[in-house]
Amino acid sequence: MEKGTIFDIKEFAVHDGPGVRQTVFLKGCPLRCQWCHNPEGLEARPQLMFSRSSCIRCGKCMEVCPFGAAAGQKTSGSPDETGMEETGAFFPGSACTACGACVSVCPMGLRQISGKVMTSVQLADAIRENSDYYAALGGGVTFSGGDPLMQGAFLLEVLEQISDLHTAIETSAYASPQLFSRIAERLSFIMTDVKLMDPGLHKHYTGVDNTVILENLRSLCRGSKPFVVRIPLIPGVNDTRENLEATAAFLAGSDSLLRVEILPYHKTAGAKYSMLGMEYHPGFDVEAPLRMPQSVFEKYKIRSEIL
């Protein structure tokens, strides 16, 4: 039996597929998009998240942390390999094993573990608890992330156990065509990102080439499975007429494409990075005005909307 790592299950989701839905967020993503707003979904392993700004520096976390003793119970100093900061707020950094010992002792409730390991049966059972309710609202369950395809074998096992439900996925489509095809045929609905058409720019801004992404997208365009393309629109990165024209031309003529959804960049994208001991330094101007040439899609007779 496969096991997977889940970092959230959102109830009453209205933008993650038809109707009202549950959205299951799986950890792990093969891309490193410079605008990612869910950094807790990047790594496949469970991680500690810590809200530093409200820390009262009581030291209780250091007392129970196996790396706290090694730090000599410091309360100040420059950042080093111990994770100590000048504020005195303790974070073990990359050494953290997400054991959770510090979570229960924090008097302010500022610590949490992002990522819970579950078997496919456990997740399928959790989904079924409210599945009748969501079905009555024309919905079902959506798998998001991260990217669910990173846990492909686990996802396949879950899908086999809920084959009677309406199932959807939000994905980058970065996976082998064989895995993508196996998962796609078990889904009711697909939402896939298209970030950039130019392979060089795609690799620069996401860390990976887009060849396999476009191959999987091409199979969707030729197939019969209903799908939506989502474009996270980033200022100065992919909001050019040239990029959107190339995207529209690639998608044109697909009978299975329902629409293109445009998700404008939000300046709060970097809000959660510090909670993971990460820094947010995107390689684009977050203050730049965002261009939205929707007329490009109208030209190719593709329905589009801004979310």
From TrEMBL:
Family: Belongs to the organic radical-activating enzymes family.
Catalytic activity: glycyl-[protein] + reduced [flavodoxin] + S-adenosyl-L-methionine = glycin-2-yl radical-[protein] + semiquinone [flavodoxin] + 5'-deoxyadenosine + L-methionine + H(+)
EC number(s) recorded for this UniProt protein: 1.97.1.-
Annotated 4Fe-4S ferredoxin-type domain residues: 46-75, 86-116
Pfam families: Fer4_12, Fer4_8, Radical_SAM
Molecular-function annotations in GO: 4 iron, 4 sulfur cluster binding; metal ion binding; oxidoreductase activity
Keywords for this protein: 4Fe-4S, Iron, Iron-sulfur, Metal-binding, Oxidoreductase, S-adenosyl-L-methionine
PANTHER family on file: PYRUVATE FORMATE-LYASE 2-ACTIVATING ENZYME (PTHR30352:SF4), PYRUVATE FORMATE-LYASE-ACTIVATING ENZYME (PTHR30352)
Protein name: 4-hydroxyphenylacetate decarboxylase activating enzyme
Known cofactor(s): [4Fe-4S] cluster
Major enzyme class: oxidoreductase
Start and end residues of each Radical SAM core domain: 15-303
CDD domains attached to this UniProt entry: Radical_SAM (cd01335)
